[in-house]
Amino acid sequence: MAGQQEAALALTEVAVVSDSASGNGHHFDTLHFPLDTTAVASQSGHNKDTGIWSNLILAYKTLGVVFGGLVTSPLYVYPSMPFPKSPTEEDYLGLYSIMFWTLTLIGIVKYACIALQADDHGEGGTFAVYSLLCRKMNIGILSSKHSDLNSNPSRPVLHEGIKGKSRLAKLFERSIVARRLLLFIAMLGTCMLIGDGILTPAISVLSAMNGLKAPFPSVSNSLVEALSAVVLFVLFLLQKFGTSRVSFLFSPIMGAWTLCTPIVGVYSIIHYYPGIFKALSPHYIIHFFRNNEKDGWVMLGGTILCITGSEAMFADLGHFSRSSIQIAFLFTIYPSLVLTYAGQTAYLIKNPNDHLDGFYKFIPKAVYWPIFIIATLAAIVASQSLISATFSVIKQSVVLDYFPRVKVVHTSSKKEGEVYSPEINYILMVFCVAVILIFGDGQDIGNAFGVVVSLVMLITTILLTLVMIIIWRTPLLLVALYFFTFFTMEGVYVSAVLTKLPEGGWIPFAISMVLALIMFGWYYGRQRKIEYELTHKIDLERLQILLSNPTVQRVPGLCFFYTNIQNGLTPILGHYIKNMRSLHKVTIFTTLRYLLVPKVAPQERIVVKKLGLKGVYACVIQYGYADSLNLEGDDFVSQVTASLRVHIENSSTCLPSDPSQVQEEISELREAKMAGVIHVRGKARFYIGKNTTLFDRIMLAFYEALHNNCRSALPALGVPLPQRLEVGMFYEA
Q1: Cα 498 vs. chain centroid, distance in angstroms?
Q2: Which helix (H) or strand (E) holds 594?
Q3: 161 vs 142: CA distance, rounded Å
Q4: Where in the numbering of this chain does the K+ potassium transporter C-terminal domain appear (predicted)?
Q5: What are phi and psi of 660, to 5 degrees?
Q6: Are residues 541 and 477 in the same domain?
Q7: I need a surface site. Which of 19, 97, 150, 429 has the fewest CB within 10 A?
Q8: Can you give the pLDDT at residue 240?
């Protein structure tokens, strides 16, 4: 512990941002900016019981948002398979049987029937399951600032205990290693999903544009790659406008695609191989592996792509109802994919060497160009869905304090989930275009894509198993049946795609490792900073002593101090008073508090209380991982002062008090707001002691580089800064 405290010795930067009472804009780091307390309810309204027509309308809307990646997978599945030789009829029958049972078991049984039940107040996805497990097991590894909180109205929400906890739940509560392993699994799933946001646009658009080769043989691969890069470049440039303006086209486009491809598939079945559905017998899978042995196992790296995008069924649960997603998948997406793959396979059985262009070759010439146009539009929609999902994941990571504070913009006043991050957008654009231009071969991108798809599914299987044991209390026999079936099935897929690491499969690993390093470095530095603040926090007695100094004056105005801790006052306060020799007449110490729920009810968003000194108050802004953070505007000042006024009035009714004192306190609050608003926030600059380990030096330096700049990382490595004052005010803690 001594080493940690020594490592946490910091210089603290105090940044003072002033805006007038008229409402001039101001900017804060994401985690230190107040929330919009009027926007959302505590739970997702979509997952309440709705009528059949409402569900059907929602099911139609899911086509353009949820299933874009899944339903466009026929574009690249067969071209991604590394056939070592000319495939036979039995090879194709075996491959179709594998795809059919993969879609059936993973798509229907795992996701549609099981995963959709594991929602966290209507929200789905890796973060939702992780948050649900943490809350139910009463463990909190998110951040020290979230665990050092007491006496809060929402506390019962945080600690929904389980009567008679299972042994596994108790193990997680006792073992820090188990909790960190769970955190690592959740982080890995998140990183892989971000990798999906890079690879899906690349492989979808490239595969769709490959359709130009068949009617125009002179079109080269370089031209197709260049056109694909241009399409993606334009798509990313349009992100800043939001998807609302064009989203009304998404569902019709995907509806047309979902309808057209199975019709072509039925035509192909009748025309080429009417007996294709005999491949539904699993014995064709046995024959396939018996005939191909290792080559058949390697080809699974391409077969897994038939289920790509299935994770979106679970991740997008918060935007739609469970029944609407199930209806859309069971009655449109699943039959469409089964018939489309059957038609492709029927064509390839008669034309076994056309697998490198297995989609466009089986399209009849009469409808070739309409299908090409629809395919290109569908690929763009699928890309847009994954790009938007990546923005949402980054936003959740920032809110959870797992990712550096990037700018997040809400592009729609009606849809809180529609967000845009300029930095992330351009990073994604560079990666997507680079993937196409460097790894233009669809098979190489498919190898990389297979790694993402299989690992995300495996992580979901592990988390769902924990949910079944710890929360649902499913009989162990059923849990074992579920885990053995899907862990074995997905484990075989993972083992197959890992063989393709040298052939493009390293791309998502490299991306995920960089993202994981960023997330862990940020998390580690934030933990050390909070430990330092908790150790050096100021209590009310110390504040009273500071204010009793005759040289310290109470000046007009309203001041917000943003702090990471709730039990105690931030160390920045001491530096501020000593150097400014003043404190505003109304000072509010504001803490943003993350709750292990998706959304916080408006009436529970702002919690205020008096701190025992005149004009000094504490305020907690509570938010969930699906809540939106309002990064611009100053409505929150009015909301906080309104809540504070109600608190003062309610306190006067509960305790005997002089009405004139209450009115005086309210008047001072109003006058302070009119005089002007000051926002004070602090940044810890880490400086290293003699006994600090090399690991601490490296991680803290990395955090400094992320949080401030590379120059501020030098002291964390033990390198002294030049004797020169930087912009800002620095105080030794």
Answers
A1: 25
A2: strand 582-594
A3: 18
A4: 556-731
A5: -65, -35
A6: no
A7: 150
A8: 80
The answer to whether the CB of 159 falls within 8 A of the CB of 610 is no
In a domain, 149, yes or no: no
With respect to residue 17, please indicate whether it lies within any of the assigned structural domains: no
pLDDT tops 80 at residue 723: no
Residue type, 714: L
Whether 38 is covered by a domain: the verdict is: no
CB 431, CB 198: distance < 8 Å: yes
Distance CA 402, CA 733 (A): 25
What is the 8-class DSSP label of residue 621?
Answer: E
Contact status, residue 255 vs residue 60, Cβ threshold 8 Å = yes
**Within this chain, do residues 509 and 541 fall inside the same structural domain, yes or no?**
no
DSSP output for 637-700: HHHHHHHHHHHHHHHHHHS---HHHHHHHHHHHHHHHHH-EEEEEEEEEE---TT--HHHHHHH
* CA–CA dist 613, 125 (Å, integer): 45
Selection from 594, 416, 467, 592 nearest residue 45 by Cα: 416
Whether 212 and 292 share a structural domain: yes
pLDDT surpassing 80 at residue 448: no
The pair of structure tokens assigned to 267 is 């035509």
C-alpha distances in Å from residue 110, one per residue of 119, 127, 329, 332, 564: 14, 18, 13, 18, 40
592 forms bridges with which residues in the sheet? 621
Residue 669 pLDDT greater than 90, yes or no: no
pLDDT for 65-89, tens place per residue? 788 888 999 998 998 888 878 889 9
Q: Indicate the burial class of 312 (C-beta count within 10 angstroms; 0-12, 13-18, 19 or more).
A: buried
Are residues 283 and 403 both part of a single domain? Answer: yes
Whether the predicted pLDDT of 648 surpasses 50: yes
286-290, 370-374, 506-510: segment of lowest average pLDDT: 506-510
Question: Looking at residue 315, what is its pLDDT?
Answer: 77
State both tokens at 139: 């463990």
Coil, strand or helix at 626: coil
Angle CA 392–394–399, to nearest 5: 95
What is the phi/psi pair of residue 400, to 5°? Answer: -80, 0
Cα within 13 Å of Cα(275), Cβ side: 7
174's enclosing H/E stretch is helix 167-174
Decide: 14 and 682 in contact? Cβ < 8 Å.
Answer: yes
Query: Measured between alpha carbons, how far is 117 from 119 in angstroms, rounded to an integer?
Result: 6
Q: Are β-strands 606-610 and 582-594 bridged in parallel, bridged antiparallel, or unpaired?
A: unpaired
A 10 A CB-CB count for 387 gives 25
Domain boundary among 473, 494, 523: 523
**CATH number of the domain within which 504 lies:** 1.20.1740
Q: Please give the Cα distance from 11 to 525 (Å, whole number).
A: 14
Q: Closest Cα to residue 395, out of 132, 148, 626, 146?
A: 626
Q: Please state, in angstroms and rounded to a whole number, the distance separating the CA atoms of residues 341 and 269.
A: 10
The partner residues of 123 in beta bridges, in order of sequence, read 120
- For 145-164, the pLDDT digits (tens) are 333 333 343 333 334 444 55
**What CA–CA distance (Å, rounded) separates 240 from 305?**
30
Cα gap 490→304, rounded to integer Å? 9
- Three-state DSSP state, 189: helix
Token pair listed for 204: 């979808």
Domain boundary among 480, 500, 523: 523
What are the Cα distances from residue 696, in Å, to 180, 689, 710? 18, 10, 17
Q: Which two tokens stand for residue 213?
A: 């080769």
Distance of CA 518 to the CA centre of its chain: 14
